[in-house]
From TrEMBL:
Enzyme class: transferase
Membrane-spanning residues: 31-50, 62-86, 106-129, 149-170, 182-201, 207-226
Keyword Endoplasmic reticulum annotated: no
Lineage: Bacteria, Bacillati, Bacillota, Bacilli, Bacillales
Catalytic activity of the protein: ATP + protein L-histidine = ADP + protein N-phospho-L-histidine
PROSITE patterns linked to this entry: HIS_KIN
EC number: 2.7.13.3
One Pfam family cited in the UniProt record for this chain: HisKA
Residues annotated as domain Histidine kinase: 255-463
Single GO term (MF): ATP binding
Record organism: Paenibacillus pectinilyticus
Keyword terms: ATP-binding, Kinase, Membrane, Nucleotide-binding, Phosphoprotein, Transferase, Transmembrane, Transmembrane helix, Two-component regulatory system
Protein name per Swiss-Prot or TrEMBL: histidine kinase
């Protein structure tokens, strides 16, 4: 009866791991499933030691050595979870960790574990089983008798602490808050489970407790993992929705631009020919001249709108946002000095995000130039730039001491060809918004008054679809 109950409990990690795999098809889920499989095998290995009233000792001895693959492969399986977690670190953060956790160390660790498993089948490993009596005289349990190299297994299992600590260190460096919290809880909870499981190595300890600990660990981790994955999916959906919006703009307008451009070419060509005809009187030439001017204006609008469409196509790489901000300030430094503007930059560390560096720099330069122009009539000219992380996003605030933007203009300020200036096409902010939206982020006016304006640029730190 004890064996059946414990065997059933042993399958809990396997079923929960498979459920995670079916719900969320990610690399982290694959690592979790592998780990859960070995955890189930570990507990099955413990369960068979209670089956002496159902099957023969020889069969128990064989099954015990067979299922021992679970406890032996747990250390590399846990380290594999840490290895997959490196995908959630930026290249700079993962640089030194990859010297310790990489495919080579993982392969060596796995090969060593398999060697321990092979030894397990020889007389150097487990040589037999002896009968012990548990807390109740009605419960009898078998316990392994180790051979000459039995200490290899014991010390190998203790090495699991190294895997747990490495994964825990990795988790604390993860930028994404959901993954960070999950991996931290995963490592600490399993460390507690492992400490209870170590009681299996002591003859005087009652090993039934490890089954309960593993079952509770599996259930807790399952619910935490589902919660994490659900939030990540929801956040990814919001990012993709903003990107899809930009793609729809491109599809709906690129065809329209093409259709307008064809007749415009005809108008431009014939107006050029007519303007060269000396037989036309002055009044007709004046009308032809107006047609040319209108055609040139229309061509300028199409050209600028085409630039607006193309601005949504990005080539993203891992980049330090602070570096892009500083480059933007360097490229606008002449205008900053000419207008006697004071720049205040609040620096932060670990501001690495996947972006199109050139296009985001264009956005920052545009916002800096807009702030400078907004302070033309002001004596106190200050532009403050602050970047910080919050909720898996990087926020960049551009605050000036300009004349402000009227509240009625807030909803229209990012619309193409809308401008409050006497000169310009009114595409600067609309292109900036399109670039940021194409990154899955957004740009907005946080506040504005006669004392100045604050514009916030938000960029997502994680591209989850690249990790799955």
């Amino acid at each position: 009866m004890n064996f059946i109950l414990m065997a059933a409990m042993s399958l809990v990690p396997l079923f929960l791991g498979m459920s995670c795999k079916m719900l969320f098809k990610t690399k982290l889920t694959n690592a979790m499933l592998i780990f859960m499989v070995f955890m189930s095998l570990w507990q099955l290995d413990v369960s068979v030691l209670y089956s002496n009233d159902l099957i023969s000792n020889d069969q128990i001895f064989f099954l015990f050595k067979l299922f021992r693959i679970g406890s032996i492969m747990l250390p590399p399986a846990f380290l594999y979870v840490g290895y997959v977690s490196l995908n959630y670190l930026t290249k700079e953060e993962a640089k030194w960790m990859k010297w310790i956790i990489n495919k080579y160390t993982l392969s060596v660790y796995s090969a060593w574990s398999l060697f321990i498993y092979v030894v397990n089948w020889t007389d150097f490993g487990v040589v037999g089983l002896k009968k012990l009596v548990g807390l109740s005289s009605q419960i009898a349990v078998l316990y392994p008798v180790y051979g000459e190299w039995g200490g290899l297994f014991v010390n190998h299992i203790k090495l699991l602490v190294v895997s747990i600590l490495l994964t825990l260190i990795t988790s604390r460096k993860v930028t994404d808050k959901y993954v960070k919290n999950f991996l931290t809880l995963f490592s600490l909870t399993f460390l507690l489970t492992y400490m209870i499981g170590v009681l299996n190595l002591q003859q005087s300890s009652f090993i039934y407790s490890s089954q309960i600990a593993v079952m509770f660990f599996s259930i807790i981790i399952f619910f935490v993992f589902v919660n994490m994955s659900t939030k990540m999916i929801r956040e990814t959906a919001q990012i993709l929705k903003r990107k899809e919006k930009e793609e729809q703009i491109e599809i709906s307008t690129s065809g329209l631009i093409h259709e307008i451009n064809n007749p415009l070419t005809v108008v431009k060509g014939y107006s050029d020919l007519l303007s060269r005809n000396e037989q036309l009187d002055m009044s007709v030439k004046g009308m032809v001249s107006q047609i040319k001017i209108a055609g040139a204006h229309m061509n300028s609008i199409i050209s600028n709108y085409n630039q607006f469409i193309k601005s949504g196509k990005i080539n993203a790489t891992e980049t330090d946002v602070l570096e892009v901000i500083k480059e933007s300030l360097d490229l606008t430094s002449i205008k900053i000095k000419e207008k006697n503007v004071h720049i205040v930059l609040k620096e932060s560390k670990n501001m690495v995000v996947t972006i199109d560096k050139d296009k985001v720099r264009q956005v920052f330069m545009n916002l800096i130039n807009n702030s400078i122009e907004a302070m033309e009539e002001k004596e106190h000219k200050v532009v403050q730039i602050e970047a910080y992380m919050n909720n898996n996003e990087i926020h960049i605030l551009f605050t000036d001491t300009g004349s402000g933007i009227p509240a009625k203009e807030w909803d229209r300020i990012f619309a193409p060809f809308h401008t409050t200036k006497e000169t310009g096409m009114g595409l600067g902010l609309s292109i900036s918004q399109r670039i940021i939206n194409s990154h899955g982020g957004y740009i907005e006016i946080s506040k504005s008054s006669e004392a100045g304006t604050e514009i916030k640029v938000t960029l997502p730190m994680m591209q989850y679809e690249e990790i799955v």
